[in-house]
Amino acid sequence: MISAKGLTKLFGTQTVLKDIRLQVQKGDVISVIGPSGSGKSTLLRCLNLLEIPDGGEVNGCGHLIRFPVRTDRQFNQDVQAIRLKVGMVFQSFNLWPHMTALQNVTEALLVVKRMSKEEAKTIALEQLATVGLLDKKDSYPSKLSGGQQQRVAIARTLAMDPEVILFDEPTSALDPELVGEVLKVIKRLAESGRTMMVVTHEMGFAREISSRAIFMENGSILQEGSSEDIFYNSNEFRIRSFLTNLK
Ligand code: ADP
Ligand code: MG
């Protein structure tokens, strides 16, 4: 679904991602863990081309891009294609405040996918039902809790019918009592066979849902392996101490 090789990203003179290699297969649920500032968000953003890497290559759903790249037509087409197939859910839900839940979910279907209103509405209602918010379809974000807003954001991403979903700390902005409802929705997506990568500090959740895990440190992948390899059996001192200190 996604692979990256030699992926490198700089901000100014700071190398934020160094020679990243990874593969995401269909059905994988990969948790991405590691200290703050280690490059987890930048990695996700490079995989769906919200950030343009400086070196290496990304193959997203069959579209191979090598970096650095000339900004030409083919490049732009590949970037559009990857962004459509690789959905993203952010920490801050980024809903449009002047639109209802339903309008938030239909907007990109109308504008980006150029669907008819009826078609967009049918899909949006289906996905609002998936996240358990059909009854809130006409509510504005200000009338929804943070957990409900994040579930609308997830419905919005699902509505675009992505092949892979990247979650960047989807519960970090939520009050503790609202975390569970969002994790439950993500867990159900994982169980239904969705391909996803999840950056999270919820270690219990990560252990439970992921088939594989990646530990990042200083812009590199320190270890990548099965969930057991990373969460229970890692020989890396820094991974063990990271996990211990979070408990
Ligand atoms: P994480 O998600 O693991 O906390 P990030 O990917 O957000 O880490 O950040 C990795 C490093 O890149 C940090 O040192 C951060 O300050 C830096 N960084 C992230 N985004 C930008 C940006 N847009 N401009 C400059 N530096 C950035
Ligand atoms: Mg981050």
Automatic annotation (TrEMBL):
Major location category of this protein: membrane
InterPro entries reported for this sequence: AAA+_ATPase (IPR003593), ABC_ATPase_HisP-typ (IPR030679), ABC_transporter-like_ATP-bd (IPR003439), ABC_transporter-like_CS (IPR017871), MetN_ABC_transporter-like (IPR050086), P-loop_NTPase (IPR027417)
Cellular localisation: Cell membrane
Keyword check for ATP-binding: yes
Keyword NADP among record annotations: no
GO molecular function, one term: ATP binding
Protein's recorded name: ABC transporter domain-containing protein
Organism field: Paenibacillus beijingensis
Lineage, opening ranks: Bacteria, Bacillati, Bacillota, Bacilli, Bacillales
